[in-house]
């Protein structure tokens, strides 16, 4: 084969021919779907006693992830997390979904809705809590994932590296 490449214009011609063939077989990156960051929580352990997540004089349930992220589910089924949100634009300190919203919100607030201001119980890894039609789960890596019923557009996920929202797992950067 070396003799053939040399007779056809040298080693450069052979290299270019192989490169052209290789490029034609490549699949564009946009055509390959990325794996969803949202976990499958069907095998997580359900926390049945939600009373441990109640806070005096506050509606809803409140919890903290093992890495210290403050989150909650309101009596109306809304949910979210307050504090440092990895990947979010500077100043944005809350991500949440509210009934009637087509997509979770990412915003700045001076009065965090999902931090009770009191001691909140820790929701451990690979467990979940359900309240008012919403489910929030903590992954093995201490990420927090929430969804309302089977509404994939309502999904949020906050990991130590990124904040994701909606059915298409839009990063919040």
Distance between the termini: 51 Å
The main β sheet shows up as: 7 strands, mixed
Overall, the morphology is: globular
Our count of helices gives 2
Q: Assign the structural class, choosing from mainly alpha, mainly beta, alpha/beta, alpha+beta, or little secondary structure.
A: alpha+beta
Ranges where pLDDT stays below 50 over 5 or more residues in a row are 1-33
The oligomerization state is single chain
What is Rg?
Answer: 24 Å
Number of domains: 2
The share of residues in helices is 10-25%
Strand tally is: 13
**What amount of the residues lies in strands?**
25-35%
Spatial order of the strands forming the largest sheet: 1-8-9-10-11-12-13
Order of helices and strands: HHEEEEEEEEEEEEE
Whole-number mean pLDDT: 85
Write the layout of secondary structure elements.
Blueprint: H1 2-7, H2 11-25, E1 45-46, E2 61-64, E3 70-73, E4 79-82, E5 94-97, E6 105-107, E7 121-122, E8 127-131, E9 134-138, E10 144-148, E11 151-158, E12 163-165, E13 170-171
Parallel strand pairs: 1-8, 2-7
Antiparallel strand pairs: 2-3, 3-4, 4-5, 5-6, 8-9, 9-10, 10-11, 11-12, 12-13
Task: Fill in the keyword field for this structure.
173 residues; 12% helix; 6-stranded mixed sheet; 13 strands
Give an account of the 3D structure:
The protein is of the alpha+beta class and 173 residues long. It has two domains: 2-31, no CATH class; 45-171, no CATH class. Helix content is 12%, strand content 29%. It has two helices and 13 strands. It has helices at residues 2-7, 11-25, and strands at residues 45-46, 61-64, 70-73, 79-82, 94-97, 105-107, 121-122, 127-131, 134-138, 144-148, 151-158, 163-165, 170-171. It has a seven-stranded mixed sheet, with no helix packed on it. The chain is globular and about 40 Å long.
């Amino acid at each position: 084969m070396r003799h053939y490449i040399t007779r056809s214009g040298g080693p450069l011609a052979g290299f270019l021919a192989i490169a052209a063939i290789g490029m034609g077989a490549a699949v564009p990156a946009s055509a390959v779907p990325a794996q969803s960051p949202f976990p499958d929580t069907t095998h997580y352990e359900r926390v049945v006693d939600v009373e441990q997540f109640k806070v005096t004089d506050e509606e809803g349930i409140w919890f903290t992830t093992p890495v210290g992220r403050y989150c909650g589910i309101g009596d109306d089924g809304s949910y979210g997390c307050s504090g440092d949100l990895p990947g979010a634009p500077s100043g944005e300190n809350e991500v949440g979904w509210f009934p009637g919203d087509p997509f979770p919100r990412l915003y700045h607030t001076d009065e965090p809705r999902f931090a009770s201001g009191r001691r909140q119980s820790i929701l451990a890894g690979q467990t979940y809590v359900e309240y008012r039609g919403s489910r929030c789960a903590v992954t093995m890596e201490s990420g927090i994932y929430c969804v309302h019923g089977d509404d994939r557009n309502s999904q949020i996920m906050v990991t130590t590296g990124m904040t994701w929202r909606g059915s298409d797992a839009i990063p919040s950067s």
